[in-house]
Design a protein that fits this description.
Blueprint (H helix, E strand, L loop, with lengths): L2 H11 L2 H29 L4 E5 L9 E7 L13 E6 L4 E5 L8 E6 L19 E6 L5 E5 L9 E4 L2 H19 L5 H21 L3 H9 L11 H10 L6 H43 L3 H4 L4 H11 L4 H8 L3 H15 L4 H6 L1
Parallel strand pairs: 1-7
Antiparallel strand pairs: 1-4, 2-3, 2-5, 5-6, 7-8
Protein name: LuxR family transcriptional regulator
Keywords: DNA-binding, Membrane, Transcription, Transcription regulation, Transmembrane, Transmembrane helix
InterPro entries: Sig_transdc_resp-reg_C-effctor (IPR016032), Tscrpt_reg_LuxR_C (IPR000792), WH-like_DNA-bd_sf (IPR036388)
């Protein structure tokens, strides 16, 4: 008997076989769907965390602190009020929940303290530097893999936070320059600093992360460059005009102050130009107006004729008004021209 015939015969006489198979498929499908829903539920309710591994020697306390940096001017500041959470370091591991953090990106700092030092201890530079900065929000999942090096955070791989990686690349670059130029002349250090400032401005101009771009700009000594290149900073703020973080709001205030101050040289320049034009006009008019000493060289009749010449009177009109002959008028005019060193009536009108 053919196999298809046998199968159809079995289905005909044993329908319960099909029912059993359908039921098992139904259960299997529902189980997979239930498992998928459970995984989705647990994933959606998972706690976001900031954690990592660090190998600190026995001179350090086994506690990691996290601080909120509310202002970019507070990068090198430390107080108890800035510390928002602590985590014990167990088997080189530490962990913080991020659920209570603001939804928007903010700047934070991880640090340890030396045994015998208070928790709010900040060591800047050197082998005992004890902190690292990062950017996070309430949904961040960041892992700091701190490998053994001369400093606590000297060789760290920051996972799931490209912004934080860029932030620390900037810091590493600045620290390297400070060390490399330690024994250079003051002029060379100044040139290196100017080159670094320009590099940071170029980075800030192309960076797609607003807070990282702003951080780079802060590190470029921006306050000393605003007056010489205000257009750059106006363009930068225009690019990030929708950013309303406290960091950008504070930066806008500083740029606004500098922009207002920058108008004073322009205003003084315009005022000086106006005064110069006014003085030139006064001097020019005085030069065109004959002095009393020059007019005193003219006789009374010549002064009368000079006044009529300035009014544009002709020789005939002057003759009729002063009741003198035309020849006398011409004689007086020649005398006036000679005494005033002029050659035509036009020059009389210009005086």
């Amino acid at each position: 008997m053919p196999m298809d015939t046998l199968s159809s015969t079995q289905d005909k006489y044993y329908p319960q076989n099909n029912l059993s198979m359908n039921y098992k498929s139904y259960l299997k499908g529902n189980s997979l769907l239930l498992l998928a829903n459970l995984l989705l539920f647990f994933h959606s309710n998972a706690t976001h965390r900031i954690g990592g591994s660090i190998q600190a020697d026995t001179t350090w306390n086994s506690v990691m602190y996290i601080s909120l940096i509310g202002n970019l001017d507070q990068m090198n500041s430390m107080s108890k009020q800035m510390i928002i959470d602590i985590s014990d370091i167990n088997k080189d591991q530490f962990s913080f929940s991020t659920d209570y953090l603001p939804k928007e990106n903010h700047l934070y700092r991880l640090h340890l303290s030396k045994k015998g030092d208070p928790p709010a201890s900040l060591i800047i530079g050197g082998k005992d530097e004890n902190h690292i900065f990062f950017i996070a929000n309430s949904e961040s999942d960041i892992y700091f893999n701190c490998k053994r090096s001369e400093t606590l955070f000297g060789n760290v791989n920051i996972e799931n936070s490209p912004q934080s990686r860029l932030l620390n690349e900037i810091n590493s670059m600045l620290a390297y320059q400070d060390t490399a130029s330690l024994y250079d002349s003051s002029l060379k250090r100044e040139l290196l600093q100017n080159a670094m400032d320009e590099k940071l401005r170029q980075f800030a101009d192309t960076c797609s992360y607003p807070l990282v771009a702003l951080y780079a700009l802060y590190k470029s000594n921006f306050e000393s460059h605003i007056e010489t290149n205000p257009g750059y900073y106006i363009h930068f703020l225009k690019k990030w005009e929708k950013e309303r973080s406290p960091y950008f709001n504070e930066f806008r205030k500083k740029v606004s102050i500098k922009k207002t101050t920058n108008y004073y040289p322009l205003l003084f320049g315009i005022l000086g130009l106006l005064i110069g034009v006014l003085l030139m006009g006064i001097i020019s008019r005085q030069m065109k107006t004959p002095s009393k000493n020059i007019l005193q060289e003219l006789t009374i009749q010549e002064r009368n004729i000079f006044a009529l010449l300035q009014k544009g009177k002709s020789n005939k009109e002057i003759s009729e008004e002063l009741n003198i002959s035309l020849s006398t008028v011409k004689s007086h005019i020649n005398s006036i021209f000679s005494k005033l060193s002029i050659k035509s009536r036009k020059e009389v009108l210009d005086i």
